[in-house]
Design goal:
This protein has 395 residues and is mainly α. The protein has 15 helices and no strands.
Length: 395
Amino acid sequence: MEREKLWTKAFTATSIVNFVLMLSMYLLLVTMAGYAMETYGSTTSMGGFVASVFIIGALIGRLYAGKKITQIGAKRILLIGIFIFIIMSFIYYMAIGVYGLIVVRVVQGIGLGFATTATGTIVSQVIPQSRNGEGISYFSISIVLSAAIGPLIGIELVQTLGYTSIFIFSTIIGLISLLLALPLQVPVIEADESTEKGRGSILNQLFEKNAIPISIVLLIVALGYAGILSFITSYAEEIGLAEVGGFFFLVYAVVVLLTRPFTGKLMDLKGANIISYPGLLLFAAGMLLLAIANSVFLFLLSAVLIGLGYGNFQSCTQAIAIKLTPIERMGLANSTYFIFLDFALGIGPLLLGFIEPVLGYRGMYGGLVVVILVGLVFYYILHGRKDAELLEIEK
């Protein structure tokens, strides 16, 4: 029997749009603190706030977009988000002061929150149900690639051409995404009245209840990854491996790129548990190895294990959130999922920043092993014990 087609024009174009927008986000994320300090003489803490405040905007955008997608359509939300992103990219060229820069970062974050909630929803709607895990795995590669490549491009542009070059690059990226998004043919999903009952509830308007349990699991587990995102460079310097600190994410990205297509197919055939349980154990093992690493080999081996573990668990949980949700509520499911993820990645560094001075980096990473294992227990309680039953229903 011929398999349903996955690589349609809509799936491919939407994945590329998501990649280029996220690429620009990561590019700006690693360069804006330096720009604020050099251009406007801001303090280090204010520079860091200028960079990270973008995430607050993205959260606001996701909250609004998630509840509006069913009403006005995913494509319209996508185009609105891209337009906001492009307009804010032009404002970077102006001398607006550090507080003006904060406003621009928040508004541009809202635009990205709109756009990426829409891309996740569109992809969820065009992926054949029988290839859901595989499709989400391929789509989420766009995020992994952008996170690996974006910072490298940003740093290189600033060092060779100056800060104006990153704003030009960001503007071009926005225009490319607009050209790709305009001809997109997106399914029109009519809301089912039976699933829309109770939408008067504020909570029900902002979150998809079916996606909340697995999103809670992701929030717990992603706290571990937040510790890597924020502190891996400083940790590498402390243990005398500064020269290979930057290779951690490159190794992580390569492992994810090589394994996600296979793990996605395996999830479609055997269910989520076959990916999630080994993934969480590998993530915990990788974190433990990172905590005791004293050589280049162990340091990069931990990146391999974390890529195999967290890298595949993350796409698996997104596929679960979508599978459990009625098609007309997929926009809300995607925004719910990424709100929990963004919250974990945003609050994680703050919480761990209080723990690290007490335990040190090694103690902090060792403690995160326990957090990941707690996440495994929550996974079993909130989803894992029901997964086989859900797989039988799908068949």
